[in-house]
Amino acid sequence: MESDQGQGAVPPEAPPSVLSTQVDPPFGNALHAALWENTIDVVLIIDADNVVVHANPRCAPVLGYAPHEVVGRDVSVLMPASLRGGHAMGLACCPQPGQRTLDWDLLDTTVLHRDGREVPVELTFCEVLSNGGRLFVAFMRDVSLRKQHEAQREADRQWAEATLRSMADAVVTLDLEGRIASLSVVAEHLTGWKASQAVGLPFADVVCLRGEDGRFVPPFRSADELTFDFPRHAVLVRRDLHEVPVEGTMAPIMSSQRTMVGIVVAFRNVAYARRVTAELSYQASHDGLTGLVNRKAFECLLKAAVARAKDGGESDALLYLDLDRFKTVNDTGGHVAGDALLQQLAGVLSARLRESDCIARLGGDEFGVLLHKCSAENAVRIAEYLRQAVADFTLVWQSKMYSVGVSIGVVQLGQGELTLGELLGRADRACYVAKAQGRNHCHLFTPDDQSLPLHRSEIEWAAKIRAALAEDRLFLCVHPMVAICGRVDGPAMAEVLLRMRGPDGQTIMPMAFIPAAERCGLMSAVDRWVIRAVVQHMAQHPDDQTLYCISLSGPSIGDPAFCAHVEALLESFGADPRRVCFGISETAAIANPASVSQMMRALRGRGVRFGLDDFGSRMSSFASLRQLPLDYLKIDGSLVRSLACDRVDRAMLESINHLAHAMGIVTIAQRVENEETVQVLREIGVHFAQGQGIARPHLLGGPLD
After folding, report:
1. Within 10 Å of residue 168's Cβ, how many Cβ atoms?
2. 2-16, 144-158, 192-206, range with the lowest pLDDT
3. Which burial class, exposed, middle or buried, applies to 32 when counting CB atoms under 10 A from its CB (0-12, 13-18, 19+)?
4. CA angle, 124 as apex, 121 and 127 as ends, to 5°?
5. H or E stretch covering 587
6. How far apart are the two ends of the chain, measured CA to CA in Å?
7. What b/e readout covers 654-691, taking b as 16+ CB neighbours within 10 angstroms?
8. What pLDDT score was predicted for residue 538?
9. Three-class DSSP category at 677
């Protein structure tokens, strides 16, 4: 380093005779005086005895001494004690007087301020000869500010390195030629390269990436264009050739002058996340019990088949299977036996279909089969083949044998312009004809089937529901939701449950009459009865601050007059809207998110709250959480049931809970049956739990546990 000012000036007070003729100044004394007074360096002239003979005015701000206070004193007074010995040794090594010497090199050191603190300076010496004697000129520049900046930069560097070491992401920096400048510790582990080996190598040699198309990709398109794209669904090929799924980002490193000086790449191992995503995707399209395609995915396949048939393509066929005597298995062997039968039958049916065909569980004991490029004749033959396979099947359960039959409705696609609903309706009617023929039969739909009445049992139940509404024989129970997370603030919560009282006073559970109400278009009337009963109870019990959760059916959600009806009820009874929470199904929310969201926002403006029911049963769309203004999320019991022992279910539930918390949504776990599950839910951070194991349902109006 060199001093910014060069050599110091000779003080003007020195008489000409003091200086040797070897250093006669080229300028006049006026210039000497200006330099002496205004230089930013401290300038000291020291004789051979180590005594200061001249000092310029810069001494005061840098050293704390006025010039006259320094003159005549040993220069060691300005040195820290640790440097005085070295200074004495340096003087002893000086050449003899009269010999020409080079200027001493610039060095960083410290000098002692008058108040005792050490001041960092850049110091250089030069020697002049005067009248055969020796003088030394010392130039000292205060570099305190520079040292502070250097210390700050070093602290920033150490902070950045510590941050990189603590980050879960791998971080790599590149120069403008795309070569490695640095690797974080995580990047070393993830790539298999040591930083010392990787620095200077091309990025693609160290971080070898393959895109979703399987091709290797460069780290960035062009440093000049500043377009940085980390490949989607990328795979990192490590140094040991093992492959790791990664995702990441790239960005330019900009200087303070806004010019690019490098590139930073951050990426992370997403093997676990992709595995969970794949499992969630599988859950979204498959039945949890049988592993078959679920109803939603099957309906998507049917829509595509209907579209192909309309376009004149080869026609497919639809089979609708409804098991006969399945209720007997459940009633005698229990639901566990029924589940085992469904699982084994799913395997039996799947094994008898072509790879191009698709079988799905549509719900309960109903299955659907889509036969690809299949004529009506072949479809009937395959249906009969499946019917015989079910008839030959026997379930052995706890030393007992169970057998069932199956009624199958067959529909040929391409018979006119059909919607999905019309197609399923035809299949249902054909299946009904098969049952009417004595069960365990197959029937191909014909136009004559269109005039057949609905199932007699459904007609009978529809009449019972209308009678119960007219005679006020519906009643409500509530199932408490227990807060299990200490961070929950808010009212007590309970789910409203519907029951029917028969003419003989016997309680009828909803699963006996709700399916008929749905098929016969009575759900809107049932929903309105439930809402009115709850609002009336709230008005009659103003001290009860419970938040009541009421599940809405699809017809009510799609009813344009629903909002006005609810608002009129709340106003007429003077009930607090903040004590009402409507639950909507995931299927209804996804079917028409725009209208559902509009209805929700209108009622939320009045204070009504909303929750999403049974989330996770289908896993159809996490996007619905962002589209809908939700307050609560009810996690389906199928994920909660085996939470304590199933690692995948726990990972799925944690993902759902984390996402809900990030969006400010309160989470509720359903079907919680034991304290072990409650403890796991607490660890995950779920807010509420509901289940027979922690609180049982009771009549509306009774005390809540």
Report:
1. 7
2. 2-16
3. middle
4. 150
5. helix 586-591
6. 81
7. bbbbeebbeeebbbbbbbbeeeebbebbeebebbbbbb
8. 92
9. helix
Residue 579 has a CB neighbour count (10 Å cut-off) of 21
Please compute, for residue 392, the number of CA atoms within 13 A of its CA located in the half-sphere on the CB side: 8
Say how far apart CA 633 and CA 622 lie, in whole Å.
Answer: 12
* E strand residue ranges, 586-665: 609-615, 632-635
Confidence of residue 371 (pLDDT cuts 50, 70, 90): very high
Q: Strands, E, within 39-132: which ranges?
A: 42-47, 52-55, 107-112, 118-130
Which among 226, 176, 186 has a CA at the least distance from the CA of 207?
186
What pLDDT score was predicted for residue 30?
79
Per-residue pLDDT tens over the stretch 573-629: 999 999 999 998 776 666 567 778 888 989 999 999 999 887 875 544 565 667 788
Task: For residues 540 and 662, give the distance between their C-alpha atoms in angstroms, rounded to a whole number.
Answer: 37
Per-residue confidence (pLDDT) for residue 607, from 0 to 100 = 93
| pTM assigned to the model | 0.44
394-405 burial string, b = 16+ CB within 10 Å, else e?
Answer: ebebeeeebebb
Residue 499 has pLDDT above 90, yes or no: yes
Q: Phi-psi region for residue 334, left (φ > 0), alpha (ψ -120 to 50) or beta?
A: left
Compute the distance between CA of residue 639 and CA of residue 655 in angstroms, rounded to an integer.
Answer: 12
3-state secondary structure of 221: coil
- The Cα–Cα gap between 382 and 599 comes to 46
Among residues 259, 282, 204, the alpha carbon closest in space to that of 237 is found at 204
Residue labelled with tokens 């199928």: 638
